[in-house]
Amino acid sequence: xxxxxxxxxxxxxxxxxxxxxxxxxxxxxxxxxxxxxxxxxxxxxxxxxxxxxxxxxxxxxxxxxxxxxxxxxxxxxxxxxxxxxxxxxxxxxxxxxxxxxxxxxxxxxxxxxxxxxxxxxxxxxxxxxxx
Length: 131
What we know:
Helix content is 25%, strand content 35%.
């Protein structure tokens, strides 16, 4: 059992890029799938899929993206942790590398990027920054 499943997901992605893997397997949850959708949408991942191993277990398989052997993700950092949650209003949501990266935020209307949350006038918990 993990105390921080999202932190585990981000660490697996980072380690897979460092090891130059093509794919990485992560235990499934809806929140992790939504984060994977955002990463694919913003061209940090090539693709993702959900596989059933048996009747009860599901696995999220992320296909990593490289540009001439350089990883698409330079760094991925967990911001709000179980031991120290970080919530911000829409005015204080982070800009990551002046728009070259994204911040992923959990809002009352679901998980989205910080830019989308700002446009909708929402604040929330800052999950991570990706660049």
